[in-house]
Amino acid sequence: MNKSVLDKDYDKIVLGFDPGTQIMGYGLIGCVGNKYEMITLGIINLKSYDNHALKLSKIHERSLAIIDMFNPDEVALEEPFFGKNVQSMLKLGRAQGVAMAAALHRGLPIFEYSPKKVKQSITGNGNATKEQVAGMLKSLLKFSELPKFLDATDAVAVALCHCYNTGNKDFENNKKYISWNSFIKENEKRVKK
Q1: Which listed residue (79, 112, 151, 154) is catalytic?
Q2: In the annotation, is 131 catalytic?
Q3: Which of 77, 96, 120, 147 lies at 20 to 30 Å from 111 by C-alpha?
Q4: Are 56 and 31 in contact (CB under 8 A)?
Q5: CA–CA distance, 160 with 129 (Å, rounded to integer)
């Protein structure tokens, strides 16, 4: 069992990330049986940095700091979606990879979920808007105010999606990596040699 900063016992704590290179969301969910509680949510604001490498460095630093502060048991990330802008997708993939590296550096198992799966798990609609996801989370997790940046609630949604789907062997797109070797083995085409 894990203790949060709130001194509450949880069966596990899940850290969710919504990768981004301008605003990156994070959210933590505490699980006790099939009951879920939001521990915290927030953003990593990268808008003031104009250098992409510096943004990646800040993502790594802040991800490690969040992991060290809350000591999660597992990390869930939203997969980059395939859009029309290849450069944007590449940058999002790098942000995701840096957050993955931070989790793997701390020995945490990581899981990836498609945006459609996250929305489906939270709202029942794989095409839900950010506002609909945030509204459903507000109702499910009983928090009073929505944050200014919905990237934070998107990260909570990823964490809650993982909580809902943990242990379901038939769940599609539930990818678990416990080391760099397991990630590389499952993603040989994505890794240049």
Answers
A1: 151
A2: no
A3: 147
A4: no
A5: 17
Q: What is the pTM of this model?
A: 0.82
For residue range 9-19, what is the model confidence (pLDDT) as tens digits? Answer: 899 999 999 99
**DSSP E strands: which ranges in the chain?**
2-3, 9-10, 12-18, 23-32, 35-45, 74-78, 110-113, 175-177
Answer whether 155's CB lies under 8 Å from 27's CB. yes
> Catalytic annotation on 18?
yes
| Ordered domains of the chain (ranges, CATH) | 2-184 (3.30.420.10)
pLDDT of residue 177: 55
**Cα 174 from Cα 161, distance rounded (Å):** 10
Residue 186: partners with Cβ closer than 8 Å, 6 or more residues away: 175, 177
Residue ranges of the chain with pLDDT lower than 70?
A: 1-7, 82-83, 167-184, 187, 189-193
14-to-62, 69, 87, 88, 154 alpha-carbon distances in Å: 16, 13, 30, 27, 14
In the residue annotation, 78 being an active-site residue is answered as yes
Q: Looking at 74, 78, 79, 112, which residue is catalytic?
A: 78
- For residue 126, give both structure tokens: 């794989």
